[in-house]
Design brief:
32% of the residues lie in helices and 23% in strands. The chain has helices at 3-16, 56-72, 91-98, 146-157, 175-181, 192-195; strands spanning 20-21, 42-43, 82-85, 110-116, 119-126, 135-142, 164-170, 185-191. Helix 1 (3-16) packs antiparallel against helix 2 and helix 2 (56-72) packs across helix 3 (91-98).
Length: 196
């Protein structure tokens, strides 16, 4: 399937699965600065048995294909040793993306997200890896990149190298610039403007 057709179907499935809702909503970045204005839309995949959840297998498969296509079209191509998804929303996406490589499922790592005393922490990685392995972090929706920065820290401490991350939707709230300051290139399928 060509990228433009695949991206069109992904966008359609976002709406058909109720993954886009036009309501004001706070984001993880509001934990750092609650004075920021609320976002006028909410992006979130439905939970099991919620309306639209039956469309998630197709949606995640297409996102995994598009993430792989994005990796292959970079110069040089991104060929990760390991892939992980930001828990919990992006685990299904990362699984579909990891399937595109010959070492699946051994190329998957997992992290656990915990809330502690009003703070978010990530524990991990879990799974087999070598020092110096290149880890690609997949995510669903990215605002300021806060969770990805928090998740990258234990990955780097464990000896993994994180130079790229991919998200389905860049909410255009500073993540690309914030990640660039950390030496990470954040790629996306859509910006919020493109999807909405």
């Amino acid at each position: 399937m060509e990228t433009d057709i695949r991206k069109g179907r992904i966008a359609d499935l976002y709406y058909l699965s109720n993954s886009v809702q036009f309501v004001q909503h706070d984001m993880s970045v509001h934990q750092e600065d609650p004075r920021l204005p609320l976002t006028p839309y909410y992006l979130h995949f439905p939970k099991a048995n919620d309306p639209g959840s039956d469309l998630l297998p197709e949606l995640f498969k297409l996102i995994g294909e598009e993430f792989f296509a994005i990796c292959e079209t970079q110069n040089p191509p991104i060929r990760p040793d390991k892939i992980t998804g930001v828990p919990e929303g992006a685990r299904g996406i990362a699984d579909e993306h990891a399937r595109k490589y010959g070492d699946y499922p051994n190329n998957l790592l997992t992290f656990t997200k915990l809330g502690k005393n009003g703070r978010t922490i990530f524990i991990g990685p879990e799974g087999e890896f070598n020092q110096g392995d290149n880890l690609l972090i997949d995510d669903d929706h990215t605002s300021g990149g806060r969770n990805k920065r928090l998740m990258r820290a234990p990955a780097v401490s464990a000896g993994l190298v994180v130079t790229h991350m991919i998200t389905v939707v860049d909410r255009q709230q500073g993540a690309v610039e914030n990640m660039r300051r950390d030496g990470v290139n954040l790629l996306s399928i859509f910006t919020a403007d493109q999807l909405l």
